[in-house]
Design goal:
Strand order of the largest sheet: 18-17-16-15-19-20-25-24-23-21-22-26
Helix content: 10-25%
Number of strands: 35
Number of helices: 11
CATH topology of the largest domain: Rossmann fold
Largest sheet: 12 strands, mixed
Low-confidence stretches: none
Mean pLDDT: 83
Length: 607
């Protein structure tokens, strides 16, 4: 339609010039026709539209699925190789596809995922009938519509369903305290006829077993979650590489039974939240602090005399246990002014009065924060927030700052009258203290948005100052995923500005040191193909180091959903795009039309 409109428009303009303006009559009509023909051909060549046509013949292109599932238990890799050779014949092309498209070779499958979209695009560019040989377990099922459009010969070699119990996923907290128990959550899948409905889970720290238990297997085929607990004190301080294994009688695929995870065990002091009473203020304080604090956070709410409940695990504790927990804490936040365990004088504390339950006078009302911040060690972290636009606090405990105390935030009741201190602090001989005199701040976190960010800014600034900078960590310029599966490249991410073209990293594993070069894409991500193992990586040129584990596990080893079906194209035809610039005669037509118009104008004595 565009081409027709363009040619008609060019014809009208040329006719207006030769017939209307130059008044050449019938000769003008001929010259206008030549100009319209030349310009029309030129417009088509510049636009270069394409038309899809169905053609037959040509050398075949065979796409061979080379993901790990093609060589798992019950698979038919050798049959796939033989089929590919037979279909390709002597003049065909065989391409392997998985995570990428590669030339054909007979080595065993090594890709940890099966994607066909790029392979399909490559095959269409080569031309010729397309044949796809796969087990049907493709990660990108949507290109199957395109496969049907090109009428590919689709050969399906599904796996036999064997008895198998697989450890599909394992969750381990990325950081734990050295005196914390570690909860390991397992996702287990079963297929085929397993002879028993029970199995066993074992967790190893290196060669040392740190936890084990019998588990009920989910009915086959099915998926279920199970848990195993590593006792407190079982893991030494540092980065620990945990191997989690599941075993079941009659399991015929052992390569999907072991998963590896990395967790950091820290001896840094804990942040303890003690809530008495167990109200919304204490619960939101613990919840938000758990998200932003650099160290481990544990919260306990007092529900009765000599009875506390952990706000994380719901474990019941007594006063004596709370005394023990807080004795070695690095920071204690008290949602009360009294009736709490006796703390060491050297422990930084942050007190949050409990409203009318606190001793002394309490002022109810709407207390709006003052936008002008007082000079304090927290001012740099709190500047830029429109404090007077936040919802009001519901009450205030009138506290008069002493000579050694400073005020970080103030508020006025109903925006009138003198301001009162909301957040006070002191630092005497290295003993740091904060007191929050207002109540109702939890509503900011409940509302979300800018109110929640202001609440979190107060918590982050206060905790960082109380810990004297202990909570600060240097931001690494280069980070890496801790765990990746077999056949999937390990991603490294550049987190700073000005993404470099390349960075050299050193990886130290069981077989020695490797020197590799990272080449980043426009998003700051680079990928490394590594053999299974545990690697400690570092770089001399940038800040950043850590542990990367390449598992011997792949989701390709256990039965996955079949996202394709067998499709046969008996006529061997395929779709191909034909572009206008492929028609050589259009170039000749444009040149001839312009040359004829120029010659005719010269014979008529026209410039």
């Amino acid at each position: 339609m565009f081409a027709v409109i363009a040619v008609v428009g060019l014809g009208l303009v040329a006719g207006a010039v030769y017939v209307g303006w130059e008044r050449l009559g019938a000769v003008g009509l001929g010259l206008a026709a030549l100009r319209t023909t030349g310009l029309g051909a030129l417009v088509l060549l510049l636009w270069n539209p394409a038309r899809t046509v169905r053609v037959s013949g040509g050398p075949p292109v065979v796409l061979l699925d080379a993901s790990l599932s093609m060589n798992a238990s019950g698979a038919s890799w050798q049959a796939a190789l033989d089929t590919a050779r037979d279909v390709a014949g002597s003049d065909g092309t065989i391409l392997r596809f998985g995570t990428a498209v590669e030339p054909f070779d007979t080595s065993e499958p090594r890709d940890g995922i099966s994607r066909i979209e790029d392979a399909l695009a490559t095959a269409r560019a080569l031309g010729g009938p397309i044949h796809v040989i796969t087990d049907g377990e493709l990660a990108d099922g949507s290109p199957l519509l395109a496969l049907q459009a090109v009428r590919a010969n689709y050969v399906l070699l599904p796996r036999d369903t064997l008895a198998n119990a697989a450890l599909i996923d394992v969750h381990v907290p990325p950081t734990v305290q050295d005196d914390d128990s570690v909860q390991v959550t397992l996702t287990i899948g079963t297929w085929g006829a397993l002879p028993a409905d029970t199995g066993r889970v074992e967790v190893f720290d290196g060669l040392r077993m740190v936890a084990s238990r019998s588990i009920d297997l989910p009915p086959s085929p099915g998926i279920g979650r199970r848990q195993v607990t590593i006792a407190a004190g079982s893991l030494p301080v540092g980065d620990r590489v945990l191997h989690v294994a599941v075993s079941a009688p009659g399991d015929q695929e052992a390569r999907d039974d072991v998963r590896t995870r990395v967790t950091s065990v820290s001896e840094l002091p804990s942040v303890i939240v003690l809530a008495n009473p167990a109200d919304y203020e204490g619960r939101f304080l613990y919840q938000e602090l758990s998200d932003i604090a650099r160290n481990s956070v544990r919260g306990y709410a007092r529900v009765a005399d000599d009875r506390w409940v952990s706000m994380g695990s719901m474990q019941v504790l007594r006063d004596a246990e709370i005394d023990r927990v807080t004795r070695n804490a690095g920071l204690v936040l008290q949602r009360s002014m009294a009736s709490l365990p006796l703390l060491r004088a050297s422990i930084p504390t942050w007190r949050w009065p409990a409203g009318q339950d606190a001793e002394g006078e309490f002022f109810e009302g709407d207390w709006y924060l003052v936008d002008e911040l007082d000079a304090s060690p927290l001012v740099a972290a709190l500047v830029g927030i429109a404090w007077d636009s936040l919802p009001p606090l519901t009450g205030l405990l009138p506290l008069v700052p002493s000579e050694t105390e400073w005020v970080a935030l103030s508020a006025r009741r109903s925006r009138r009258g003198p301001s009162r201190a909301i957040l006070l602090g002191s630092d005497s001989a290295g003993m740091r203290r904060l007191v929050t005199a207002g109540t109702g701040m939890w509503r900011w976190a409940f509302r979300g948005g800018a109110e929640r960010e202001a609440y979190r800014a107060i918590l982050a600034a206060g905790v960082d100052w109380l810990l004297g900078g202990q909570g600060r960590t240097r931001t690494a310029s280069l980070t890496a995923v801790r765990t990746t599966t077999l056949g999937v490249p390990a991603p490294f991410t550049w987190t700073s500005d000005s993404i470099p073209e390349r960075v050299s990293v050193t990886l130290r594993g069981d077989t020695g040191a490797l020197q590799r070069e990272l080449r980043f894409d426009q998003t700051g991500t680079a990928f490394l193909d590594l053999d299974p193992g545990v690697y400690q990586w570092s770089s001399e040129n940038v800040s950043g180091s850590g542990t990367v584990v390449v598992e011997s596990y792949s989701p390709e080893f256990h039965i996955g959903p079949i996202t394709s079906s067998e499709l046969d194209a008996a006529d061997g035809s395929f779709l191909s795009e034909r572009f206008v610039r492929q028609r050589w005669w259009l170039f000749l037509l444009a040149i001839t039309a312009f040359a004829a118009e120029w010659g005719w104008r010269l014979r008529r004595g026209l410039p």
